[in-house]
């Protein structure tokens, strides 16, 4: 790529800039992608037989993956490229050298910024690759063996201290990477995969996503929400978006913005919700959208999102999703094309239909006192959807996520704090003795020292504050704290305690929270 001297830009600022680019539609003034490749990239990437370019033509990546490659050219090699050209290039490369939906299954948590996910890769991949970045970053790209080997060489050339770090100095990392990891990665994540060719051959038209979508969501620390997202085509696979909804407590969830579609299914949006800038990272599959929305400046403050196009028929959610035996409660069914009689299985009676439309049915239910504990299949006419949990007593409370990381910040600096956000999940036991998830319950929250060292260092006092009613943990300020031993910072090792009331009986669950230092490097794929 064309290289020139340029003013320095911190990796953090550039990460924010490129993320904004990814979620914004392309400008009409942008150059053609082929012209950009020829005039900007061919300075370093040589043309090949068949019209390809060295290195570039031998990789497939997500939009975020291509964005990170271009950003690396900027920060490490002095590339100068306009935001418009960068948008165009990412769009073109993701569309022509992207990943099929099946190739992102199981690792979308990285794209959706679910940063407290505990990954499950084989031990070798975790130790050789996952010790520095997520294993998902590896799994979200495709290369032939030669390109995987070049990536290994790049790692050692760019970070020469790599071999002296933990899980590297105890082994011949470079030799293992070349001789064992390269063949493994080439086999597991090959450039040529029939799934991608098949997807390109049946690529749906972006315009089919235009219309009204019923959606359901859940925000930890706030609760469930539902509403309608209206989408109108804006040309070049981009859209105008309007959102109108509300939380279960009645507070609004309204806003508007724009979105763009990559690779035929990768939806990326920028939406301002009640004055708060939020990102949308969804997978569009037929008449369904699913993924996560999160604040642009605080990706930990995000909500699960699932939507169905109103021209289709689908039952998305039951809110709330549980009912105690011998009690009555109101529940709301969220979906599209809802028609017919709702049914909640044996032992659950519909007492009253309070409200009914194709997108929303509000009912009053009663569970028999002797209703068997367990999951009930919910149907509306011929539609089958999520389950309703019927329980008599709560057997166990779990804190979700079980392991979490929060980060100190601010304190006079520009790096924001990263909160910890938790839900209390109630679990029951079925008639077969097997555990089943009842749902998210209101809880009272607190933190305690995780171990004796944390107690000695008074981590509860300094690391931050837990909001008792919401399960939201606010970390302390960054920087040295003269009140602490050796004026260290406000990091801490904490146990998160949730107490749930079940008919006057308090049940508790515990999770682990590490409060650590600021996140200096915040790439689109962690």
Automatic annotation (TrEMBL):
Assigned keywords, A-Z: Signal
Instruction: Give the protein name, as stated in the record.
Output: Quinohemoprotein amine dehydrogenase subunit alpha
What the entry lists under NCBIfam families is as follows:
QH_alpha
Q: Which InterPro entries match?
A: QH-AmDH_asu, QH-AmDH_asu_dom2, QH-AmDH_asu_dom_III, QH-AmDH_asu_dom_IV, QH-AmDH_asu_heme-bd_dom
Which residues are in the Quinohemoprotein amine dehydrogenase alpha subunit haem binding domain? Answer: 33-196
Q: Which residues form the signal peptide?
A: 1-29
Give the organism, scientific name. Answer: Pseudomonas chlororaphis subsp. aurantiaca
**Quinohemoprotein amine dehydrogenase alpha subunit domain span:** 207-309, 313-391, 397-525
């Amino acid at each position: 790529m064309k290289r020139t001297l340029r003013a320095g830009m911190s990796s953090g600022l550039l990460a924010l800039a490129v993320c904004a680019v990814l979620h914004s539609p392309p400008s009409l003034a942008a150059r053609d992608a082929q012209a950009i490749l020829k005039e900007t990239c061919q300075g370093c990437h040589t043309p090949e037989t068949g019209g390809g370019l060295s290195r570039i033509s031998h990789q497939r990546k997500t939009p975020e993956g291509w964005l990170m490659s271009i950003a690396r050219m900027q920060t490490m090699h002095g590339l100068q490229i306009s935001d418009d050209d960068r948008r165009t290039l990412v769009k073109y490369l993701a569309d022509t050298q992207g990943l099929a939906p099946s190739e992102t299954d199981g690792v979308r948590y990285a794209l959706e910024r679910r940063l407290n996910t505990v990954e499950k890769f084989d031990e070798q991949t975790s130790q050789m690759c996952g010790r520095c970045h997520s294993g998902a970053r590896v799994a979200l790209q495709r290369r032939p063996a030669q390109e995987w080997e070049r990536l290994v060489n790049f790692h050692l050339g760019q970070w020469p201290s790599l071999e002296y770090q933990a899980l590297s100095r105890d082994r011949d990392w470079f030799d293992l990477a070349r001789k064992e990891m390269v063949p493994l990665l080439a086999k597991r994540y090959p450039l040529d995969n029939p799934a991608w060719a098949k997807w390109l051959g049946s690529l749906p038209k972006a315009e089919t996503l235009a219309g009204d979508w019923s959606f359901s969501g859940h925000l930890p620390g706030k609760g469930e929400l539902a509403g309608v997202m209206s989408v109108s085509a804006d040309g070049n696979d981009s859209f105008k978006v309007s959102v109108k909804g509300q939380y279960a407590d009645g507070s609004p969830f309204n806003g508007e913005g724009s979105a763009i579609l990559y690779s035929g299914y990768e939806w990326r949006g920028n939406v301002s919700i009640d004055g708060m800038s939020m990102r949308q990272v969804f997978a569009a599959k037929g008449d369904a959208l699913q993924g996560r929305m999160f604040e642009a400046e605080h990706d930990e403050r995000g909500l699960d999102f699932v939507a169905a196009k109103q021209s289709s028929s689908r039952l998305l959610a039951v809110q709330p999703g549980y009912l105690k035996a011998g009690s009555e409660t109101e529940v709301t069914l969220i979906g599209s094309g809802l028609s017919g009689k709702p049914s909640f299985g044996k032992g659950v009676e519909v007492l009253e239909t309070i409200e009914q439309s194709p997108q929303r049915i509000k009912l009053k239910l009663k569970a028999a006192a002797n209703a068997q504990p367990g999951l009930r299949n919910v149907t509306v006419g011929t539609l089958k959807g999520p389950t309703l949990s019927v329980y008599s007593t709560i057997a166990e409370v779990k804190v979700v996520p079980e392991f979490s990381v929060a980060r100190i910040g601010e304190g006079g600096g520009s790096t924001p704090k990263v909160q910890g956000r938790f839900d209390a999940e109630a679990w029951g036991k079925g008639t077969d003795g097997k555990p089943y998830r009842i749902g998210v319950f209101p809880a009272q929250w607190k933190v305690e020292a995780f171990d004796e060292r944390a107690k000695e260092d008074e981590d509860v006092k300094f690391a931050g504050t837990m909001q008792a009613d919401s399960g939201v943990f606010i970390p302390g300020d960054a920087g040295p704290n003269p009140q602490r031993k050796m004026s260290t910072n406000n990091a801490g090792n904490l146990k998160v305690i949730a107490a749930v009331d079940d008919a006057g009986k308090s049940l508790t669950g515990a999770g682990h929270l590490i409060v650590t230092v600021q996140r200096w490097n915040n790439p689109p794929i962690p």
